Every structure is written in structure tokens, then in C-alpha cells.
Amino acid sequence: MRSVLVFLAFFLLQGVAFSQCAMCRTTLENNVSNGNPSIAAGINFGILYLLVAPYLAVGAIAYFWFRASRRNARLA
């Protein structure tokens, strides 16, 4: 129980964090202000790709595990 409280404290009581480095932010702001939003769109797409990839991997593992367990239950 104590470890769960410590775990929650680390994630719920954290401060504000900026996720972009100074160079990335400056580059994106300069490109958008100069009328070239394509680089910013590409970086946003990359962020979304990195966000979704682990969930797809876990979902695929869960699906194959579920399918194998149903097959084993049917044979038993």
C-alpha cells in the first residue's frame, strides 16, 4: 500500500513541465511565423506516432494472449 501511495505522489504531485527543448521550440516558432507550418505539423505527427505506438503494441500482445487462452480453454 505504501508503494502505491509513493507511486501516485510522484505522478499526481508533479509540477508543470515543458516538453520541448529550447532549440525545437525556437525552430518551430520561426517557421510558423515565417508562414511555413509544415515542419510544425510534421513534429506534431511524430509526437502522436510516438504516443500511439506503445498502446498498439500492448493491444496486439493482449489480443494474441486472449486468442491463445480461448483456444487452450476450448481444447481442455
Descriptive notes:
The structure is a single chain. The protein has one domain (20-75). The chain is 80% helix and 0% strand. It contains three helices and no strands. It has helices at 2-12, 22-33, 38-75.
Give the % helix.
Answer: over 70%
What overall geometry do the principal axes of the alpha carbons give? flat
Describe the main β-sheet briefly. Answer: none
* Structural class determined from secondary elements: mainly alpha
Strand content: under 5%
> Number of helix segments?
3
Number of strands: 0
Low-confidence stretches: none
Order of helices and strands: HHH
Number of domains: 1
Q: Residue-averaged pLDDT, rounded?
A: 83
Q: Distance between the terminal alpha carbons, to the nearest Å?
A: 37 Å
Task: Write down the Rg.
Answer: 21 Å
Reconstruct the topology from this structure.
Blueprint: H1 2-12, H2 22-33, H3 38-75
Entry keywords:
flat; mainly alpha; 80% helix; 76 residues; 3 helices
Summarize the structure.
The chain has helices spanning 2-12, 22-33, 38-75.
